[in-house]
Amino acid sequence: MSFIKKACSLVAIVLLISPAYAAGELAGKTLHVSVDPTTPPFSTLADDFITPIGLDVDIIIELQKRLGFEIAENRILPMMRSEQMKRIKNNQLDLVAGCLSATADRAKHLDFSPVYYDTGLSIIYSKSKYNKVTDFRKFNDAKVGAVEGTVSEHFIDRQLQGAQKVIFPSFMIAMIAVTQGTVDAIVYDRPLIEYFAQSMPDFNLEVIDDIYERQYCQIALGFGKNSPYTFIISKELYNMKKDGTLDAIVDKYIK
């Protein structure tokens, strides 16, 4: 069992035996909250290019309704992952989300909620360059992109050692590169690349059927290390799972 699965199993046991918190447990508290807006359908920006929307945003809003906390500046801040990690380590953020993988490396600096979505990596490519691809090794001599600081980098290093690895600062920049033919394929979290391919059919992109590295793609909420909010919010997230609210939010965005 992986480190993250062990940790989440322990959290689940603690939540099961702990007393329920009353509604409004965090009333009077103000949390600084951020999502990475380059991770649709988990989080992206509305048409005003300011307001974050998406699966993780809905989860945070539901938690706010139940626990009664305020959000600083009365808004969830859109922020790139690298900036999120910098600020939460410096205690400038209380809660981060946006398809955040709970990894052992991040757990050195963050606390995590229980995992609420289990996914994995996959590969997106242009159908104008490749016919139906059934084996990822097809890209072993190709130019393959990954997002900086993510599991996708390590996948290319381990599994596609013959490929030319190209690193991008964000998911959306990587997607632009594959649509323009700058790279042959992108390795990334399956829900994100699948959402992109389905919502942008004119780009003629395809996602390989297989899913890889599930153990590294456990999606959770992130908190500052030893945060006073981790347990209370995790408990309410567990309650949302029990009463069906969490599954309804996930199903709204991911079929």
Automatic annotation (TrEMBL):
Residues 1-22 form the signal peptide. The keyword Membrane does not apply. Gene3D superfamilies: Periplasmic binding protein-like II (3.40.190.10). Pfam families: SBP_bac_3 (PF00497). The keyword Lipid biosynthesis does not apply. Residues 30-255 form the Solute-binding protein family 3/N-terminal domain. Keywords: Signal. Belongs to the bacterial solute-binding protein 3 family. This is Sulfate starvation-induced protein 7. The gene is fliY.
